[in-house]
Amino acid sequence: MADQDAYFRVMNAALKHPEGRARGGESCVVCGDPVPQTAYWGHRDRRVCSVHCNSLLVRRYGRGSATVDAARFAGAEVLVGPRPNPRTTGPRLFRTVPDELVPIEWEGYGPLPGDVIERYGIITRFQLVDMPATFFAKKIVISVAETREHFINGANPDGSCSRLEIGAHSPTGERHTDSLNHKFTINGVLCEWRREHITDLQPDGVDYFTWECTAASPVLAPQYPPSMQSPRYRTEMQRRKRISSNTSRHERRARSEARIEQFDPLDIYLRDEWMCQICGAEVDQSILYPEGWSATLDHVVALSRGGNHTPENTVLAHLRCNLAKSTN
Asked: Which of 73, 130, 145, 244 is most exposed, with minimal Cβ within 10 Å?
């Protein structure tokens, strides 16, 4: 499937308030009530006071309402732009790799015409077919098993499978009513159609995309999750969560004039080589918060004294060292 994240990035960029994140007390752009200081940071970026007002703002965006600045929307679209299919190879074989975290090979938005998928010894080939103008889909992707059993999906503009499922068909073209539950035999092996869904990152690490297809597989083969994530995607989502949680937590403690930057605490820990900058001892990476010897961020100039939440003003410290410093 084509890049999913771009639409939401356009929307987020368009709905961010031009004067920046609300710190508390600014007027909600929807109802005019004050935006609470404790509101979710995404809502404060948009300057809305509640989940309800955020939903109304998103609806206005979807309707193209004049209350959403057209210039901001246009600028956001240019900023994001179309994302090409990240695939770099031509027709190829996608194998089963049972010892990997994701047990199947993938690349790009899905298999293209000429590709071959092998799943636990069962082969599926793919064809792209143009449909008559009277058909509800302009193009379809046909997953063809060795016995000519086939499964039909709609097609994306690049020729990969869309989420439209037209269903399983017999070698003679008759549609099976049980679709993905339909069983058939290939070389004496009972098989079924399986939907593959893997979320991965674009090469630049900004947006995500999804590999999707339908391929034949033995019924007794290990079942992989209906929705899988690449290791790279998981690592990036964990990094973004750390940044968001770290920023939001410290912003609530900072003075209104303080500068709040978004950064990954792990980058600070690596910069300080996992050495506590208060006691000078090593910080054990395996010890997790809130244990006393776990890793924390210490502000050189405390937030309560007007310090900024920036990489330059933060260092690695044991939690107990950090707390002891705070009481002095």
From this structure: 130
Residues in a beta bridge with 149: none
Q: Which residues of 19-57 are buried (b: 16+ CB within 10 A; e: fewer)?
A: eebbbeebebbbeeeebeeebebebbbbbbbbeebbebb
**Could you tell me where the beta strands, DSSP code E, fall in the chain?**
93-94, 116-119, 122-130, 139-145, 150-155, 161-169, 183-186, 189-201, 208-218, 228-229, 295-299, 314-318
> Is the overall model pTM greater than 0.90, yes or no?
no
Confidence at residue 7, expressed as pLDDT on a 0 to 100 scale: 61
Which candidate, 260, 319, 264, places its Cα nearest to that of 294? Answer: 319
Q: Which positions ≥6 away from 127 have C-beta within 8 Å?
A: 113, 141, 142, 144
Residue with tokens 């960029």: 13
Residues 199 and 227 sit within 8 Å (Cβ to Cβ): yes
* Rounded Cα gap, residues 266 and 285, in angstroms: 11
Domain ranges of the chain: 6-80, 93-229, 237-327
> How many whole angstroms separate alpha carbon 252 and alpha carbon 247?
9
Exposure string over 239-264, b if 16+ CB within 10 A, otherwise e: eeeebeebbbebbeebeeebebeebb
Measured CA to CA, the distance from residue 110 to residue 17 in angstroms comes to 37
**Overall residue count recorded for the chain in this entry:** 328
Tokens read off for 96: 């089963």
Kindly state the tokens that stand for 259: 């500068």
- 237-327: what CATH class? mainly alpha
User: Which among 224, 227, 223, 222 is positioned nearest to 210, based on CA atoms?
Assistant: 227
pLDDT, mean of each 10-residue run, the chain (328 residues): 59 83 89 89 89 86 58 58 78 94 93 95 95 88 95 90 91 91 94 94 80 95 89 90 85 78 93 95 92 94 90 95 84
Supply 261's token pair: 């930057």
